[in-house]
Amino acid sequence: MSKSITVPPEGIHNQLIPGTTIHGDIITEGDIKIDGQLIGKLETTGRMVIGETGSVEGEVVCASAQISGSVKGKIHCQELLSLKSTAQFVGNIITAKLSIEPGAQFSGYCSMPNDPSGASASNGADFETL
User: Fold this and answer.
1) Is residue 67 situated within a structural domain?
2) Closest CA to 125 of 84, 78, 93
3) Could you say which DSSP state residue 29 is in?
4) Residue pLDDT, tens place only, 92-122
């Protein structure tokens, strides 16, 4: 008798396309790319990518992130947070590693604890959103 194991196909992720706006929360275990607008909270155990046309207003909790668009709020990133040259970030960051390209705009506070996975977005660095 053989066992049946379901393995999700590689490369499948969630995407919010340009022209789409969501008011609410998104919770996913997969990677997500945002080219539209999210007003609310995003939680993912995967990678979050915000394209140049994408924007998030609210709180983000993710494993890693690459931002080319705009964010206003808080982000808690367990691994690497990368702000690309076109990024506009107003708010507060908790992350293990931070990369900011020349041209990126960042206004807020950043905390880089030794173990960001153990800290919650509201513990240790309870910043007020600008």
Assistant:
1) yes
2) 93
3) S
4) 999 999 999 999 999 999 999 877 665 544 4
Would you say residue 65 lies in a domain? yes
What pTM was estimated for this model as a whole?
Answer: 0.81
- The boundaries of the domain holding residue 103 are 14-111
9 within domain boundaries:
no
DSSP 90: E
Domains held by the chain: number: 1
Q: Distance between terminal CA atoms of the chain?
A: 60
pLDDT tens digits, residue range 58-82?
999 999 999 999 999 999 999 999 9
Whether 92 is covered by a domain: the verdict is yes
Handedness of CA 22, 37, 83, 93 (dihedral sign): negative
